[in-house]
Amino acid sequence: MGIAPGGIASLPPFPDPGVVQTLVSYKGTSNEWLSSQAAYPPGFGTVFVGWGAFCAEGLKDSNGNTILESAVAITDKLKQGDTAGATAAWQQYIDLFGQTSFYGALFDIFTGTNGNKIPGNTAWTFSDFDKFGALGIGSGGFGPLYPVGFTEIMRLVINELETSQNFLQVGIRSLPSTLVQQCSTQYPNNFALKLNTPINLVSEYDLTKHISTGFFLTGPTGSFGPYQRVIVATTTRSMEMKTNITQFSSSAGTKSPLYTPQLSADTAEAVKRTHVVSSIKVAARIEKYWANNPNATRVMLSDTAIQQIYTLDYGEPDTGVCFITYTWEDNATKQQALGISQAGGAVDPVALYEGLLILLAEMGPGYAAFASNLKPIGPGNILYADWQSAPYFSGAFKLSQPGQDPYVQTMFYDYQKCLTPNRDTGVYLAGDCLAWTSGWIEGGLQTALNAVAGVIISAGGTLNPDANGLTPLSINPTAYSYFPGT
Questions:
Q1: Quick one: three-class SS letters along the chain?
Q2: At what angle do helices 102-111 and 150-158 cross, to 10 degrees?
Q3: Distances in whole angstroms, Cα of residue 451 to Cα of each of 193, 268, 334, 336
Q4: What is the CATH number of domain 39-159?
Q5: Nearest alpha carbon to residue 167 among 57, 10, 288
Q6: What dotted CATH number matches 194-272+402-474?
Q7: pTM of the entire predicted model
Q8: Mind listing the pLDDT tens digit of every residue in the chain (486 residues)?
Q9: Is 279-386 assigned to CATH 3.40.50.460?
Q10: What is the domain partition of the chain in residue ranges?
């Protein structure tokens, strides 16, 4: 899979802010920051201590009684296999903040307005919330995610998805590429791969019968099939806007290929309702200016239009990669406009990268010096992605808004319809947009395994359980109550 000889961990680690030399700018004041010299940048003590105390100690009432167990404690329960304890603790989060935005929960927790003890013992001011939104605890701002559900963000914290990140040297696409190679080798007569083949229509082979007749897949390049079962693995926005699987006939009793329900009404509604974020990423191959200078600035964080810059090391001796931006929602829309020169025009990646470099250099002498290190190596070395405008994506990944967890529950467990023949449509879903950990490969892999398990049972097969006798179909879909009274 293109992994370095010593494994993933043998590649240089992700340049986390503060772990490497980091340039921090807030309201025009700049500081160099290394966490080995100072735990947080100047001025960020209140949010650093408060957020750290909440994650480590949880939330307590005015008498010191625990209201919410800490994120650290729940993580430890998961690592120790205490699923029951972790489940009970997480239900407390859902009960208290399951219908609340990230900002709303932070306001309750860190202002003391709910009468509880404030983690870190210092109430946050408006300025503190602004700092946390702009730069977090000095490691990247949460502002674009303030409207997202609080529980959505806390899942990422508890599952430690931003902890100890490492690289695949040739990129994450090596994972599906290797799966394709293995399938073509092991199943040469039952495996076919068709690339650059958009599919817009999933239709039953015989509309008068059940799914046993199979499905045809149709797109601009033709029709393919029949296939016994279908797994649709794309973003939920693409499922809704680019395929027919969430559509229903407008005339009762009619059934046509264009409007054949391929999902239950509840699942189709969940696909259409759940929030998907906008996001852009701009990267370039640059000279590895830090190769002989371990004290060189590697990361920049600011409250300007350029939110964050990272320089990544993929183990090449002379070159690295600069992510001059990877941002979401309003910030993504703001930056995207910088690369459009005419109304209705497409984004020019070169113009966008150069425009961001100019903004960086204008922030001051230290920033101009940093910007001079980030120039791309020759033409054709800039990579640009904006998922909301990309064909067959229509958005980056799912981040649930307050109250949307029941939708995710419906999508995530849709594969278990294989256990109920009269609910089994034969069309299954996969992708990180359905997952509780959207935006990460873990969520995509988990939903893929679940979908495959559903297909195997639906087609009359059996599953091999793990050492504890469990399969994906052993997961309890009602382990949590995501809305009062359910």
A1: CCCCCCCHHHCCCCCCECCECEEEEECCEEEEECCCCCCCCCCCHHHHHHHHHHHHHCEECCCCCEEECCHHHHHHHHHCCCHHHHHHHHHHHHHHHCCCEHHHHHHHHHHCCCCCECCCCCCCCHHHHHHHHHHCCCCCCCHHHCCCEHHHHHHHHHCCCCCCCCCCCCCCCHHHHHHHHHHHHHCCCCCCCCCCCCCCEEEECCCCCCHHHCEEEEECCEEEEEECCEEEECCHHHHHHHCCCCCCCCCCCCCCHHHCCCCCHHHHHHHHHCCECCEEEEEEEEECCCCCCCCCCCEEEECCCCCEEEEECCCCCCEEEEEEEEEEHHHHHHHHHHCCCCCCCCCCHHHHHHHHHHHHHCCCHHHHHHHHCCCECCCCCEEEEECCCCCCCCCCCECCCCCCHHHHHHHHCHHHHHHCHHHCCCEEEECHHHCCCCCCHHHHHHHHHHHHHHHHHHCCCCCCCCCCCCCHHHCCCCCCCCCCCC
A2: 80
A3: 19, 16, 37, 35
A4: 1.10.405.40
A5: 10
A6: 3.50.50.60
A7: 0.89
A8: 344 444 555 677 788 888 899 999 999 888 889 888 888 889 899 999 999 999 999 999 999 999 999 999 999 999 999 999 999 999 999 999 999 999 999 999 999 988 899 999 999 999 999 999 888 855 567 888 899 999 999 998 999 887 766 666 677 778 888 889 999 999 988 888 898 899 999 988 665 556 667 899 999 999 998 899 999 999 999 999 999 999 864 444 444 555 566 899 999 999 999 999 998 899 999 999 999 998 899 999 998 888 889 999 988 899 999 999 888 888 888 888 877 766 666 888 888 899 999 999 999 888 999 999 999 998 889 999 888 888 888 889 999 999 999 999 999 999 999 999 989 999 999 999 999 999 888 899 999 999 999 999 999 999 999 998 999 999 999 999 999 877
A9: no
A10: 39-159, 194-272+402-474, 279-386
